[in-house]
Here is the input.
Amino acid sequence: MKIRIVKTASGAQAVQVVRYQHNKRVIVQHIGSAHSGEELNEFILIAEEWIKDFSNQLSVFPDEDPNKLLHLNHCKFIGVKYHFFRDLVNTLHDNAGFGDLPALLNDLVTIRMFEPASKLRSLALLEQFFGIKHSRKSYYRIAPQCIELKAMVEQKVIAFARENYAFQFDLVFYDVTTLYFETFEEDELRKNGFSKDNKSQQPQILIALMVSKEGFPIAYEVFSGNTFEGHTIIPVVKQFVKSHEVKEFTVVADAAMISTENVKQLAPNNINYIVGARLGNIGSALLENIDKNISRVDGKSIRIKTDNGYLICSYSSVRYRKDLYEMNRQIEKAKQVIEKPSKSKKLKFTKTNNQQIEINEGLIEKTKKLLGIKGYYTNLEESVADNKTIIERYHELYKIEQAFRISKSDLQTRPIFHFKEQPIKLHILICFMALVISKHIELKAGISVRRFLDESKKIVDGQILNEMTRKIITVKAEPTPKMKDIISKLLPPH
Here is the structure.
């Protein structure tokens, strides 16, 4: 193919791309009619670019600047893509070992971080924001692999945690939360139960999550929505210890996880525990022991041997004032109910005697003895972990609450729109992987996921259509100074 320039009847110079076939000239493409020398040079450059694209020929001059062939009067802006965000998150996927998992799974994790949505909309957003196409059927094609994929992901996550956070299994934080569905129909997995989202009328599932001492997620499990949270810790922890052949393991959990039966199962499996104690449920003898021996001075604590392990009690004047205010508020409510029985309802400091509601003086006296006192159960000997260490470890349980907050707010894990068990479990796997990447960003870059997203969305690639060659040209944006700093923390040079 060659460029041909001919004069038109109007005196202009027409630029054409021609080829010769059987000694005949064939006009392949009319580029345009130039009315000046500058316009002629422009059309010649466009013709050269058209020939190169049409014939897939490489340029004879590899160092030639391609931008000189972009003429805005023959181009149209067609939108933007967020390739920078996807490329950076893909690098984090690779670093976490996710690179050899199904591409669709990783792409759904990326879009879950970028803009959480239903699976159908997520597929549309992948194409809109990143130019990636996946069919709807492909999601349900990988759904049957959710159990196998979960095991693979957890192995990779633990290896990643070991490398980046020196994770050693010696201390793991455990908690559960509920995720509700946009439906009112139950099945074997989706059950009505105690909802932490105040959605008791809608079926839900129960999610158990384990995180490291830094708050980095390492494992999870899914239970039916009517499962009592105290019944989850034993099967989850025992399976985790068995799967990873853990020799030394300590789990930290809240008060709902402890029971005499749980303690009986933890100890024989070499599983140490630190859990909150519900002092309102203890017997009178143990209460008197605490009241008699504890020093009501900030920072002071005692350790008492019980059937549930060592009970450690500490006193705080700040907690005392908070507990006292709450007790007085509840007592006042109780008095109002007694004065106006028509509005009666069961309150903490009331009891029924001969069908009459009266103040529960015994409970008030018990509550007074516990004002300002917080309890913790553990089986760890004081020589291994003193009272101060036990209390500090328990107070770090807020890190798992932070992980749940990221999952429920930034990643919008709830509500769930799937109805079959496999797609539901695949959805939870995607959210778990997104939580892993998100928490890694927070820990390493020292910023929230929201701020990371805000900064990432400033870096967009413009897409321009050359209307003559029909070629889409991408104009890449440079990372902002803030993003360069974030990258240096996330991807330090080796």
